[in-house]
Amino acid sequence: MHAGHFGGGSAPGSPLPERMAAGAGGGVALSLLDLTFYFIDYPAGQKLAYVVLSVLSCALIAGLGGWALTRALAATGALAPLAAGRTAERV
C-alpha cells in the first residue's frame, strides 16, 4: 500500500495483480449480493457459474481495464495534475 492512498488498488503505481485482485473482490461482493437478494431460487450449478463468471469479468474489466486506462491516460499527460500522472514515465 502506498502512503497517502486509501487502498493499494487505487494507487497509481500498484501492480496489475493487485488491481485484478481488487476487481475480483468486487465480483465476490456482487455475487453475494445478487445471490442473496435476487437469485435465491437458482440451482447450485447456476449459482456457482454466476459467481465464477462475475469474479472473472470484474477482475478483467475493473482490474485489467482500469490498469490499462490509467497507463494510457498517464502516457498522454492527461493525468499530469493528478498523482497517477506525476508518477508516470513519459513515452
Overview of this protein structure:
About 65% of the residues lie in helices and about 0% in strands. With about 90 residues, it is an all-alpha fold. The protein has one domain.
Element order: H for helix, E for strand: HHH
Q: Largest sheet, described in full?
A: none
| Low-confidence runs of at least 5 consecutive residues | 1-10
Distance between the termini: 26 Å
Number of helices: 3
Overall body shape: elongated
Radius of gyration: 16 Å
Helical percentage: 55-70%
What is the residue-averaged pLDDT? 81
Q: How many strand elements?
A: 0
Which strand-content bin applies to the residues? under 5%
Number of domains: 1
> Could you say which structural class the secondary elements and strand pairing correspond to?
mainly alpha
Give a topology summary:
Layout (H helix, E strand, L loop, with lengths): L15 H22 L6 H33 L6 H4 L5
Labels describing this entry:
single chain, 91 residues, mainly alpha, 3 helices, 65% helix, elongated, disordered N terminus
Give a quick rundown of the structure:
The protein has 91 residues and is an all-alpha fold. It has helices at 16-37, 44-76, 83-86.
